[in-house]
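Folding problem:
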Amino acid sequence: TGVQTCALPIYLVRSLGAHPIDYNSSDFVGVVSAAGGADAAFDPIGGNNWRRSLHALTGAGILVGYGFAAATENGRRRFRKAVPAAIRQPVVTPLTLMQQTRTVAGYRIEKLAEQRPDWFSADLSQLLSRLADGSIDPIVEATYPLDQAADAHRHLGSANLTGKLVLRVS
């Protein structure tokens, strides 16, 4: 059974075969470590939470940071939150990672599309193929017409989601 730390409702997390942990009120590092540690942590929060996610990893685990929600408020980046969050993030060096046999990676889809369009295209093709053949079935919370994209963006910024948001083009 996997361990899922997010804001999804408990019933949904359990229905996906994972053990829900509210990282705001529980020591997710302790819970995950007691279960043997995580092989991978995908962390959209950043700041000190990246440090906590690193501590939850198994000896050869990987941390993928793909967001920095610790620096945002109501969906907008706030300087007064960004500075403390940046200061609290872990400082990792190749030597430290080598000694711990861990990996840290960052992922920003916008940068991937800009810097390696061939990789982005391959990733997107694979994703759309899997969506078409049904081998992935994302949870869609809401669908918005394109002319309501601002409403969808506000919804996304609320960080109160139980699935993906979809913009309908036609």
Summary: Helices lie at 10-15, 28-34, 48-55, 79-88, 94-100, 109-115, 117-133, 149-157. Confidence is low (pLDDT under 50) at residues 1-7.
